[in-house]
Amino acid sequence: MDHPTREEWMEFIYGEAEPADRARLEGHLKTCSDCREAADRWTGAMAGLDTWQVNVPARPKRHARVVAALAVAATVLIALGFAVGRLAAPGRADVQTLRAELEPALRASLEKELTAKWDASLTAAQETLRQDVMAQVRKEMDDAQAATNTLLAEYARAFDDVRRSDLVTLARLTEQELWRTKWQVAVALANAPYSAPVATTGPPAGNEHSSQ
Amino acid sequence: MLMRAKRPEPGSGAMEGPGRRESGRTLRPTAAWRVFRLSDEEAMLRAQGGDAAAFAAIVRRWERPVQRLCARMTGDLHLAQDLTQEAFARVFAARASYRPGGRFSTFLWRIALNACCDERRRRARRREVPFVTDEKGTRAEADPTDQAPAPPALAAEQEEVDLVRAAVADLPEHYRAVVVLRHYEGLKFREVAEVLGIPEGTVKSRMAEALDRLAEALAMLRTDATRRPQ
Fold it and tell me: Using CB atoms and an 8 Å cut-off, which of residues 60-119 of chain A contact chain B?
């Protein structure tokens, strides 16, 4: 069998073979076990080579270096500012003097502010209390008025009842007295002797009015 | 599928350098790249005329690829940093010899590889510890970034990486250069040949031989690793 050369196989396995050569070599691989074995050996070695990767550290970017330089500069400036501030700061005695000067004014201001707040709170509390008392009194008065009205209504009803009862009693007594009087008149008339009326020319003086 | 997926085209003009991918991460273009849009060749011509900013842009664009190349050629990340500086110093010193017709990346890769070879020879002359040593006890010296103890879950993966690094380290230098340029840096075989100054067919045959040796070495190292008492 006419085997392809090793050079041709190298072109084939590294993808540099022309299309016609590639087709020819692929066809040969299907029929030649020796060449297939060699090709497998080479591709196995290539796969082994692929496992070794070299990771070269990247050079720091220029802008990263600029940022780092700016950060360092900022740190130095901050440190310098802090140091200058510490050195230029007044001593402890000056702080106490300043406190002594400021304390009365601060105290007066504080007292004034607290007093104003207290007065405002007191006024508000008084107003609230007055409104509460007025509301309570108004409520009590309303309740008393309602109770009085109720009592007056009850008294009026009781008075009406009593008056009605008295009138009924008076009417009954009056009727009884009227009947008794009528009876006494009737009895008196029945017991009186009969006398014929006397004819006269005129009524006697002094009895004119009563005879009518 | 045997055929390897195509890597992005490195090493020429405006498409190289900043657009490359490493470990699945896209490297973003630098500010200078976005502003000036200079190709490597244009930047190098400006550097020949004394434009320091143009040369700085080249360094920013290429220092990570060159450092990766040196790290894989030497197995030592710290030494790779020194060799990267050495390579760019050589590029600057040799800027007058750069011809505009040639690709800058070829010029740069060649200088970087020469810096690695010179370092190996210098160490051999002084009988210093070679930067590519055997797999026993070389992990801390070979790559100081791996000195931290790996979590148990990553121990097996790290051991595989160590085996691969040791296998690459055991390759002869002319094989290792082909593997690093073609496999890791993604140059075409033609470009590798241009950098190394050898015929393209020789590059391919060296690649095949290197893969054979790597497969054999990896199998042997894996066997030793399984036999080694835990």
Answer: 62
Q: What angle do CA B127, B129, B130 make, to 5 degrees?
A: 95
What are the structure tokens assigned to A3, written together?
């085997």
Q: Which residue of B has its CA nearest to A63?
A: B31
Distance CA A54, CA B78 (A): 12
Q: Of the candidates B34, B41, B84, which has an alpha carbon nearest to the alpha carbon of residue B63?
A: B84
Residue type, A155: Y
H-state helical runs in B135-188? 139-142, 152-170, 173-179
Which of B4, B23, B80 comes nearest A46 by C-beta?
B4
Residues 6+ apart with CB under 8 A from B74: B80, B83, B116, B119, B120, B131, B132
| Interval B133-182: pLDDT, tens | 433 434 434 444 444 555 665 677 788 888 898 899 889 999 999 999 99
ipTM: 0.73
CA pair distance A133, A130, nearest whole angstrom: 5
